[in-house]
């Protein structure tokens, strides 16, 4: 292209929904198509040189914490055979949320496995099970966060990180309350804190 000035280019493409989830990152780059000989030393000359790039992040599943899940046979793992589910948390608070959280559902627990299969059109019993899983997962995440002394409302975690997700969860469950006060409440009166958390997640309420 030898013309000067600004050109508007419209790009159309299709992404398969089955391959997407969580946070979609779109990288756009402008590359030099052909080698340019005889150009100034400070100018790009090699074909494929990046002239400009930009990244756009699009959250596909809302602002609520999202993490992957898997249905497995707990009898083949170190988890108790009769447990219904397990929320696995790994990595530090700076780690990406999508790589740090994994909800495991025991396929041998038919009631729980069926509830997740029917999540798009849940029956009354499925709603009860899903509410219990959500409440327990929130408890595990909150307790995990409170176990890190560097987890405070003033902490600055990267977008999409586990720490940022946990801060968002706290803002949702305990609006107007400081993390320091919540941590003290959990340590001084764990039974009362458990009831507070049940109320915060609105367990078994129909939305």
Describe the protein.
The chain is of the alpha+beta class and 207 residues long. It folds into two domains: 17-59, no CATH class; 69-201, no CATH class. It contains six helices and five strands. The relative contact order is 0.11.
What's the domain count? 2
Content of β-strand: 15-25%
Shape: elongated
Most strands sheet: 3 strands, mixed
Estimate the helix proportion, in percent. 25-40%
Q: Counting H and I runs of at least 4 residues, what is the number of helices?
A: 6
Helices and strands: which structural class? Answer: alpha+beta
Oligomer designation:
single chain
Instruction: Give the terminus-to-terminus CA distance.
Output: 57 Å
Rg calculated over all Cα atoms: 24 Å
String of helices and strands = EEEEHEHHHHH
**Which blocks of ≥5 consecutive residues have pLDDT under 50?**
none
Count of strand segments: 5
Strand order of the largest sheet: 3-5-4
Structural descriptors:
5 strands, 6 helices, elongated, 207 residues, alpha+beta, 2 domains
In brief, what are we looking at here?
With 207 residues, this protein is of the alpha+beta class. 33% of the residues lie in helices and 16% in strands. It is elongated.
SSE blueprint and pairings:
Elements lengths: L22 E9 L18 E10 L9 E4 L12 E5 L7 H4 E6 L3 H8 L6 H23 L15 H12 L5 H10 L1 H12 L6
Parallel strand pairs: 3-5
Antiparallel strand pairs: 1-2, 4-5
